[in-house]
Design goal:
Number of helices: 8
Radius of gyration: 17 Å
Structural class: mainly alpha
Low-confidence stretches: 215-219
Length: 219
Amino acid sequence: MKPFHLNVAIFLSALLAIYTDFIGDHKLFSVFKPLTSIFVCLLPLVWGKPQPSFYRWAIFVGLIFCLMGDTFLLNDAHFIYGIGAFLVGQLIFAYVFALYAKPKWVFGIGAFLFLFGGAFYFFIQKYLGEFQIPVAVYLICILLMVWGAIRLHLKFNTRFSFLVMSGAVLFMTSDSILAINKFVFPFKISGILVLSTYWTAIALIANSTVFSFAPEKRI
């Protein structure tokens, strides 16, 4: 199985998961949701470049925590555990992106991201109740991840880094939609938007391990 075939499997499994969620078939959704994320985890495990190996394995471990988060979120009673699993995944992604983008701090972009995040948190804060602190911590972590991903792309400007940056931005988009749907006002197509942006995000990040850091692969 080549990366293309695995990506097709991810796409088809994600479609089935999104469809079963939309029609309310929780039993099948409980199968296809983790299955889709398992397929994503296989990308760095099977097709990830051996160098740099730390990047490949860090992304794999981060994706495993995303898979754990997916599984916990199948049950609303385990929401806080799901957030915790995703938080660990975000911290791993944020660390590895910052590690390889170390010379590129780009404080202006960081300031813009945190101003945007602060405005978003101010908007939803009154709806959060007991989740105010967990959501604030999670928001900081995902903003750090996106900031690191943007810096990474500015440093390398390759297909690899473009996938990372696009995936990180989509991850933030997915979580923003999820927060609005859960805490502010629920809307019918939220599941479609959250899941499609989320799986596209982690698939892009996973696919980044298939490409090297080599400058000759500039986009």
